[in-house]
Design a protein that fits this description.
It is a single chain. By secondary structure, the protein is mainly alpha-helical. It has a single domain, classed as Cytochrome Bc1 Complex, Chain D, domain 2, CATH 1.10.760. It has six helices and two strands. Strands 1-2 form a two-stranded antiparallel sheet. The radius of gyration is 24 Å and the shape is globular.
Length: about 140
């Protein structure tokens, strides 16, 4: 009888040890986002100029990593991908004056890549860009 009581006590202790101090952390809807489609678009269309790490090329192609331009100029950033960009822009206090050709992406691909780059390399954007938002951006 003592052996049986001891077995139940051990079973209770072991099962309570597995869950007593561990809190289940629920991910928010934002944290559940999968940016893999945007990452693929980035690798196919953007990485050649803005580099795998998003840091760009000094004096040639602006950084996307920790970019104040992306953070503060959402519509202009979308427009640059959708229609291209020429002329000077200032990113993180440095002037860039190169051309970016239109990438020929669909509105969904633009939304996907924007969500990827605005949530990578130190960027944080919890207000996700939608395909509908991109479709409303005009020249």
């Amino acid at each position: 009888m003592k052996l049986l009581s001891f077995g139940f006590c051990m079973l209770f202790l072991l099962s309570s040890c597995n869950s007593s101090n561990k809190k289940l952390v629920q991910k928010s809807e934002f944290e559940k986002q999968d940016f893999s489609e945007g990452k693929q678009v980035y690798e196919d269309f953007c990485m050649q100029c803005h580099m795998a790490n998003g840091k760009g090329v000094p004096r040639a192609f602006p950084p996307l990593a920790k970019s104040d331009y992306l953070k503060n100029k959402r519509e202009a950033s979308i427009k640059a991908i959708k229609y291209g960009l020429s002329g000077s822009i200032t990113v993180n206090g440095k002037v860039y004056n190169s051309n970016m050709a239109p990438q020929g992406l669909s509105n969904k691909e633009i939304a996907d890549v924007m969500n990827y780059i605005t949530n990578s390399w130190g960027n944080k954007n919890t207000s996700l860009i939608t395909e509908e938002e991109v479709s409303k951006i005009q020249r």
